[in-house]
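BUG: 3D viewer hangs when loading the predicted structure for this chain

Environment: internal workstation, default settings.
Expected: structure renders.
Actual: progress bar stalls at 90%.

Input used:
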Amino acid sequence: MEGVIPMLGKKIGDALNEQLNFEFYSAYLYLSMAAYFEAISLNGFAHWMRSQAKEELMHAMKIYYFVGGRAGRIVLRAVDAPPKEWASPLAAFENAYKHEQKVSGRINNIVTLAIKENDHATVAFLQWFVTEQVEEEKTASEVVEKLKLIDDDKGGLFMLDRELAARAPIFNLPIEVAQA
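Structure tokens produced before the viewer hung:
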């Protein structure tokens, strides 16, 4: 029948809703990291994390619109509180890298489910996320490696802070801190 929206199956809908909510948690995590970096006066690191939080919100909204567009039901859940302290900038970025690896695994599991469920539209939709996660892991890993090279060199840390401050935001949400 032409013009009929292909309905989202229950298993896929549930999995996408879980991921939608996990993307919101990811945004919370990165905002918490931004607050940590602001508290230790690494404003470039904080800017990078606020930009990352914006990306996670964009990811959540992509899923939101896809589920709705497939006549699925969107189910929002409470977002768990993220950690608020890290032992060091390196520990925070190692956490971010591990988190991105977890996101990649979750996306891959949904792709596998979509293949099993013969849901080609969801497989096609998720390919963007698969590609995005390669970039997300690479970017976080590169910062981890730079922080390892810097070790205890404060000058190197401030140079990296300046580099991270140059990250261009992907879109404008009111998450930026007003500059006085």
